[in-house]
Amino acid sequence: MPNNLARAASELAEAALDRGDPDAARPWLDECERTARDLGNDTLLAMANLGRAGAHRLRGERQRAAEHYDRALAFARGSEFVKGLARAHTGLAATHLDDYATDQARAELDDAETLAGRLADAGIAASILEQRARAASQDGHDCERDRLLRDAQQLRVAHGRPPGALDRPDVEAVTPGPH
């Protein structure tokens, strides 16, 4: 039962982050992490750290976000939580792109894509494409950026997975035309 409560807390935190409200996510992340530590559950600890990373990224705290993505990777590896690994690599790529470190971002995206191939998660696949579009944009490859954004949008529409608050600014920043 505590495992289910921690997962529910993580989902509530993620919903708050999708709305762009890191402050509302905090108590849910605290609850998830507290229960995960009590249970010694690395998957739940990965989920809590992914949430904390997202909250820091929403606040523009790139270094703190990267630290939590790194922690999430460590916990996800320990529990073989493939979805968590893919999300953490994608998040690290985003923080690298925030700092215009496209080579590092591409390496993270390669890892994320390999892992995402084992999942049937259109949201993660779309996020990877969107981060690749950011990298293409930073390198001045506008045609590639546009193709990647179209592919990501098609995935999101086909699977009913709209972008959350973390994805929207990244996509808007590289989408041509008025926002």
Strand proportion = under 5%
> What is the subunit arrangement here?
single chain
* Helix run count: 9
Contiguous uncertain segments of 5+ residues? none
Number of strands: 0
How far apart are the termini?
44 Å
Largest sheet: none
Structural class: mainly alpha
Give a description of the structure.
The protein is an all-alpha fold and 179 residues long. It has 9 helices and no strands. The chain has helices at 2-18, 22-39, 42-58, 62-79, 82-98, 102-116, 122-138, 142-159, 167-174. The termini are far apart. The relative contact order is 0.10.
Main traits of this protein?
179 residues; mainly alpha; 9 helices; 0% strand
Outline of the structure:
The chain is mainly alpha-helical and 179 residues long. It is 81% helix and 0% strand.
Write the layout of secondary structure elements.
Blueprint: H1 2-18, H2 22-39, H3 42-58, H4 62-79, H5 82-98, H6 102-116, H7 122-138, H8 142-159, H9 167-174
